[in-house]
Design a protein that fits this description.
This is Elongation of fatty acids protein. Its EC number is 2.3.1.-. Its main location: membrane. The protein is mainly alpha-helical and 207 residues long. The chain has one domain. The radius of gyration is 19 Å and the shape is globular. The termini are far apart. The relative contact order is 0.16.
Length: 207
Amino acid sequence: MPIGLENVYKSRLDTSKWDYSQLIDPYGFRWEYGITPFSDWQIIVGSWALYFTTIFGLKTYMSSRTAFSLKYITALHNFILSAWSAGMFIYAVIDFIDRWQTRGLPECFCTSDSSSISGRLFYTTYIYYLSKFYELFDTIILVLKKKQLIFLHWYHHAIVITMVWSWLEEANPYSTIGMIANTFIHIFMYYYYFSASLGRSIWFKVN
C-alpha cells in the first residue's frame, strides 16, 4: 500500500529490502514503496541526474566529432519498444475489461477497496513504469547521431517517469487508461522509427 507522499520523502534508500520476485509475479504483484524494486523516489532523482549528465556530457563530447550511424542499434532499440508496447497494451486492455466486468466501470477509475490494487493489471502498469527508464536511451541515441535535441524531448522522458511512479504510489486505477492510450500510440510510433532506421517505407506514414 502507498505510504503517502508526505512520508515517502522522509524515507532512505535501502535496496536490501527490495523483493525481486515482484518482477516475475504478475498475479501476486502489489506495489509497496521501498519493497518493490525501483519504487524509491531516490531512484528517480538518481536517474534524472545520470540522464542529464549523460546526454549533455555526450552532446559536448560529440560537438567536435562525426556522428555515429547506429543503424542497427537504432532499429533494434525501436523494435524492442514497439513489441514491448504491444505486449503491455494487450494485457492492459484484457485486464481493464476484466476489471470492468467483475467490479463495474467505476472501479476502473477509483476504488476504496485497497485489496483490489494488485494483480496483473497493476503489474502491467509497473512494467510500463520500468519501460520509461529504458526509453531514456532514445535521447542517448539522438545525441550520438547528432540529431536535434529539443527541450520537449528530454523533459518529457524525465517527467513521465515521475508521473507513472505517482500512479503506482497513489494507487490510481484510472492510470490504466493513460497506459492503454500511450502504449497503443507507441506500437506504431516505434515501429515507424524501426522501419525508417532501416530505410523502409511504411503504409501508415502520412506524407
